[in-house]
Amino acid sequence: QAYVSYSNIAALTHLAAKSGWEITSTLDDIKIWTHEEGDVLSLKVEMQVKIPSHLAFSLLSDFTVRQQWDKHFLTCEVLQSVNEDEKIYYVTCPPMTGCKPRDFVVLVSHRQPCKPSEPYMVAVKSVTLSSAPPSPEYCRGEILCAGFQIYSDSNSSCTVCYFNQVTSAVMPYLAANLTGSSKSIEGTALECRKFLE
């Protein structure tokens, strides 16, 4: 367990530190970057939020409130509290065209910064839990690495960066946006900012 939670935070730190991010869009103070490596596409969304970083951290690390701003979350329940910094959630998502609805079992690890210059982190990755086996009603998705880094800008504002290493399971939700036919990523980011503020 210690290794899995460490590797969750480490994977997000590694993804955020990669070089070669290309900016694809800037709208309403929301910046979107992509990073391609082999068949893995990573996404980074950055926005300024007018609340203190510790408050953004507490709201973003509680996945049970995520449906309030993310329409890709239909339901979200805590399956297991591993410790105060780690929880395992069961998430269901609406079906995309011609597919069954998807479900995910994810470990969410959060960490407070050790130094003021470091970000708060909320890291997400899929895990296997014997008490939550795949069900025939859903198509089980996998999240390789996703999450938030929250940097403090001042006492009343912060920068929130969302990362997602996109696999074929998450791709249908993003493909429409990346081709420019939909603004779902910007839309979700705007909803997130509205919810936080």
UniProtKB/TrEMBL annotation:
<protein>
    <submittedName>
        <fullName>Acyl-coenzyme A thioesterase 12</fullName>
    </submittedName>
</protein>
<dbReference type="InterPro" id="IPR051213">
    <property type="entry name" value="START_lipid_transfer"/>
</dbReference>
<dbReference type="GO" id="GO:0008289">
    <property type="term" value="F:lipid binding"/>
</dbReference>
<dbReference type="GO" id="GO:0005737">
    <property type="term" value="C:cytoplasm"/>
</dbReference>
<dbReference type="InterPro" id="IPR023393">
    <property type="entry name" value="START-like_dom_sf"/>
</dbReference>
<dbReference type="Pfam" id="PF01852">
    <property type="entry name" value="START"/>
</dbReference>
<feature type="domain" description="START">
    <location>
        <begin position="18"/>
        <end position="197"/>
    </location>
</feature>
<dbReference type="InterPro" id="IPR002913">
    <property type="entry name" value="START_lipid-bd_dom"/>
</dbReference>
